[in-house]
Queue: 4 jobs
Job 1
Amino acid sequence: ASHRKQNEQAATTPVSLPGRPNPVTLPQYFVDEALLLSNLLDLNELSSVDLLIAGEQQQPRYPGWSRGLVAVILYHDGRRVFLQCLDALVQARRGRNWQVGVSDELSALATHFTDNLLKEGLIRKILALVRDI
């Protein structure tokens, strides 16, 4: 809630953004677009500002596309890459029924890391996300 309020006031009150040394004031249309993106993707409002900035920076790679559309593409690309990494980690776990050709040390590390993710409720979170689709 505090990030939403902070973002709503960013047109008149400078806001601190992650990775940026100085607070910035944003144009009202940018604030409105960030709030829309936040609602659309169920994101933290400051994360949506950062995503829009990234979308604006990447626009030359997507001629004719709006900053918001590029931001949505970047968001989904990031999620896809995250899932691919998670898949690779799970595949590298020690298992009785498969071998992926990784060293024992890497397999032990992947097993330890994914065991911690499972203890933190990863399966429950994934099932909740799938349910909400």
Note: The first helix runs from residue 2 to 8.
Job 2
Amino acid sequence: KDKITAFIVERAFGGVSHGPPEKKLGIKCSNTAEVYFDNVQVPVENLLGEVGSGFKVAMNILNNGRFGMGACLTGTMRMLIARATDHANNRKQFVSNLREYQGIQEKIAKMNLLCYANESMAYMLCGNMDRGAPEYQLEAAISKIFASQSAWDVCDETIQILGGAGFMKDVGVERWMRDLRIFRIFEGTNDILKLFVALNGVQDVGNELKKAGAIGAVLKLAKSFTPMSGPGPIKTKLHSDLSNSADMLRQDVGKVRDGGSSAGYKTQEKIIEQQITLNRIADIAILLQSMAAVISRSNTLAEKGDISEIVLANAWCTDSHNKIKNLLDDLSNADIAKADSAILSVGKLSLDSNGYVAKSPISR
């Protein structure tokens, strides 16, 4: 009685109806409507899977939707980068084209790196699935989180580079922004999936975390990274120009496994409720997976004589290495914990007052 069972329900059964299409912010070409069931009789042969396995069926459907986002949004990011670079190459501001300014070069670089890391993880995930990997829900969740956030960031920067023109409907980029907003929500919100990555990265890790605290979470996740990509991402035969990136990944995995400075970590009770900590752990997991993916991809190409992507892999790994260091430091920093507590207190005040906390200066 307490379990969910899945069925295939057909309109021809009778009692199935739907409401009008919802008016949405984006993806307007896809109809969204409420579905109503009124005493619908479903024959037993329409059972999907086994009785009580409906939740597993639903999760498998979500996994399949998540893994596709990485590939889908790679195409979106490629298009956006093309629009941004075309504008930067041809738009003259003062005496120079936009492309000559470091601020624009930095934006374009970060957009390319996000797209490259996302595409690399998507291909790695698809490769594991093609090889018949029985478990890939963690990788699918990571791919979905990273792809949806990266595509949003790339679109936002594209509009910024285009300036006022990017804000105009006729240019078309605003439609991509409206369409992209849903990707951080459906197939499981990024907020919930980050908790999933942090708490369920390995079998029964949720129970272990209750005893091990934050450092236990990091340790459990670290042990799951190398096998997650099939053959180890750091191969013995590695192109010499990738050695620094591979060393950084080894160092980061080692720091996570060893817990960094063990004296800085304290066991946390009720870790499941420590969502700020869990978000940091998930961010570490995502960055480690992305580093492994770009090293593996660029090294595979280098073995075939194409070293053009090594610069992308090295740039991504260097940036990710620094981010992981900061995240690990934050997990053991008492001042960061105090700052987190202060921020949470403001959130609680706002919720208690059912709105903005501060009063208007004019009303005093």
Note: Confidence is low (pLDDT under 50) at residues 201-233, 260-268.
Job 3
Amino acid sequence: VHGDIYKSMLRLIRQRPLIRGARSFWESMNAGKRCPYKEVAAALLESKIPWPAVNLAFPTCNEEDGKIHIPKVVKLVETAICREKLDKEYPPMAGVPNFLSAARNLAFGNVPYESNISSIQTTGGNGAYNIGATFIKNFFPDACVAITRPMFWQYEDTIRREIKHYPIHEIDLPLNQNDGFNTFLEHIAELSENTFLCLPACAHMALGPPIDMDIWERIMKIVKENRLIPFFDLTQQGLCMGDMNEDATAVRKFANEGIPLMVAQSFSYNAGLYGERIGALHILCSNNQEMQSVWTQCQVLIRRNSINPIHGARVVAKMIEGPDYFSEWKKDLEVTRVRLLSIRKDLNDSLVSFGKNNYVNLLDQKGLFSSIGSFRPTSFALTNKIGTMRDGLINVTGLNPENIPSVARALPSQRKIHFNEVPYLSHETK
């Protein structure tokens, strides 16, 4: 591990030669970009906007009072774990074993091919995408990657950062039920063999309707015929369709057909364990021998990055394995899901009351995020006192009965979605 760190430092030194006359070695280095939601929040704070401004550019599931929502069962489980006085030893390189078993079961169900699934613990959903993208880059250098957009900006940035040397295709998902999925399916059908296809397992990110089973059947048919490898985003399981199993339907359907696939899983949104950084990457293989090869190579990638935390993994494992805890967790998720539906309805009703009828697909959407249009978020925030993320992405839990009318009043009458206008990203194929 130390050797890898030293090598990275040497590469950095070679890339940043000292400028003659500079007072410091680091003087020649430019400042890095802030992440989008931090930039918007900073713009609101640094501006002279008279408060209250409404910041909807944050990545957590919040209560109505703005505090992060942590399910009560998480606190109960943490108390029980503390009573057990467990050690703080390093976990195995792949992660905490009973967490991996529980997380895998939550994603795939109780299946006979469990021994063919490589599962490793990651630092949240972004860690799963990071390891997954590095795995693709290292072992499939001739493969292509297709991003189905919209996609959570951090995951998309991770894929683009790791995969630079071969084409990244962009395929837009439809904005509402009326648009239909035909164009989307046609674009998938054009992908070459062995392309990794990023797909939302649930919560079609921000803009469009859920993908129903008929569409999944058609996607699966194309995936089989073209020998594509799905890379599923399962980071909002339990917050979308009202049932943990239903939110994992697409993953399980493809897996039951024996299709090789990857799954990025996170327990930030649904368990409130943001700072614990608890996620998993699952890769379905054809047999156990393949799985062992994939599993050990993924552990090498983990070793080069970081050792995974144990406390949050123990919390998730106990919460899934304990029937009473799991039942309480599902009840909490249902309450949150119903609240998200209610907020969307209230926003839609308020928009309609202002004569803004171009946001009807709000009611089709699921999960934490929605989009109110395409513009530069910082400029929009300063002009309208509303902070949004990329693609005009908003966190629905930032809305409440007090601020919904002012948000609806500030939104433009005509909603534009143009991905090529989205800031922070270059959309050139690399």
Note: The CA atoms of residues 26 and 405 lie 48 Å apart.
Job 4
Amino acid sequence: PVIGGHSGVTILPVLSQAIPSVQFNDHDELKAMIHRIQNAGTEVVEAKAGAGSATLSMAYAGTRFVKRLLSAMQGKPRVVECAFVKSHVLDDVDYFSTPLELGPEGIKKNLGVPDLNDFEEGLLRDALVELKNNIDAGKQFADDFKSS
């Protein structure tokens, strides 16, 4: 699963919970993989020399999520997807991406933050500082938009 937020260090890939499991040769290889995941969108923009973004990736992710949500709404059991939603799984932030069990009415259950290893716990601490700022900026944007 990938939990947290939507950009940079707020994106927290929980590689310790990957299925199938994944192993890295050393800590530097793990850190490099996490960095690539966290900065994949930027990597695409740079590869396109600023002439585009990772829209195909976003479209694929959105399509996958909607298909899975529709399956759950039609009664398919045990549909789990990660999504960035208003939640109280952590005290520090009002919104957070976690695995969600989806059902006929939408979110059936927030499954919370998966078990994290010590390294991932450190990434979470780093992510929360930036994520709180992102959420505050998003709320301010929404308030300003409503006022205009």
Note: The mean pLDDT is 94.
